[in-house]
Design a protein that fits this description.
Layout lengths: L2 H22 L8 E7 L7 H5 L10 E7 L2 E12 L7 E8 L2 E8 L8 E11 L5 E8 L5 E8 L1
Parallel strand pairs: 5-7
Antiparallel strand pairs: 1-6, 2-3, 3-6, 4-5, 7-8
């Protein structure tokens, strides 16, 4: 085979590899940001009712996703928190490993009440490349726990 044919074959192979890599690149997940964390406070029940829970039913918890203008809005319904969490707020951290997004929600340090309640915690995720993800929600406030679901956008 002549040197010219080898060069052409090599250029075609490198072009095919570059094209494949460009088509499968998912985007830069290192720029992902959490913002606009809000909640609706304790749902309507009393401290005595919150203390009466012997085991918190995980099926009461659910997550709602809305995607628009490059921002994913997440509402974590019925997140269990200490009733004193609202004095200093709830924070959210995110980590991404492939298409698994781990979200950790926790209460800021502050006064701790002798009760638990449910709240709807909402936040926005910017710069998450479009795709199908498994979201794993973790918390430490009541016990080590995780809740997961899959969402495509």
């Amino acid at each position: 085979m002549s040197h010219q044919r080898i060069k052409i074959a090599l250029v075609l192979m490198l072009s095919a590899v570059a094209l494949t890599a460009a088509c499968t690149k998912r985007g830069d997940a290192s720029r992902v940001q959490i913002s606009n964390i809000t909640n609706n406070g304790c749902h309507s029940h009393t401290d005595a009712q919150a203390l009466a829970y012997k085991s918190l039913d995980e099926e009461q918890e659910w997550v709602e996703f809305n995607y628009g203008n490059g921002v994913l809005t997440v509402t974590h319904h019925n997140l269990v928190v200490n009733c004193g969490a609202f004095a200093n707020g709830i924070d959210v951290d995110i980590s991404i490993d492939g298409n698994t997004v781990t979200i950790n929600e926790w209460e800021h340090d502050g006064p701790v009440a002798d009760c638990l309640c449910f709240t709807d915690n909402m936040f926005q995720i910017a710069n998450l490349p479009r795709g199908t993800y498994t979201f794993v929600f973790t918390r430490w406030s009541t016990a080590p726990y995780s809740y997961s679901c899959t969402y495509s956008f």
